[in-house]
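An example makes the point: we let one protein speak, the chain in one-letter code, the fold tokenised, and here it is:
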Amino acid sequence: MNLGELIETAKELADDSRAAGLWSKDALKVYANEAENEAARRSRLIVDIETAKDANDDPVCHYPVLKGDYSITLHPKILFVRRVKIASQPLVLPRVHIKDLDLLAPDWDSHAEGSVVAYCSNWQPRKLLFYNAFDAVDTVKLQVVRLPLVPMIGPDDVPEIDESQHMGLVNWMLFRAFTKPDPDTKDKVKAKDYLDLFEQQFGKRSSAIDETWIQREHGYDEFEGLF
């Protein structure tokens, strides 16, 4: 389904046949983009290993590094990092907790150059730290869980999540539509029903506390688990 079809489906299910419409197409466009972001975040729907850069030329999965670099700043749409590999090395890098790095390599903060043997994702928010610093120009390749890179704007724009999940987005759109504070549109019962349908498909909303804990404490063994 494209954006135009999502909007028309929402209007049809809401029995919005008025010429002017109970909700503007701009409002429904906002709700559709919210729906995709909510779905992607709750169900970890977008797993990416191939998108090198976004439309603004900012790195998404491939990060060029220079000699002496010891960290990268992650793209703001990235929720979790699942896999890290240095282009020049054959093996995937292991992930190390900052506490273990302090115990095993107490000189890590000198950022000496050498072979990169591990990465740390709970050093600073939205950054990956490498041990050691790079001793040559290279590329860091990531597998990530992320949000959609660009919003849907035109009627032909299509959600980035899989097509099998598109219809579920309409439930969020109608939840938001029926919570609009207007006597002609607000309906708490319908809003709750549509939110329940959305959450049955995509799950409850992730809290910032949960996502921060997962990023900080999870993923230091062979189990992929929560992210």
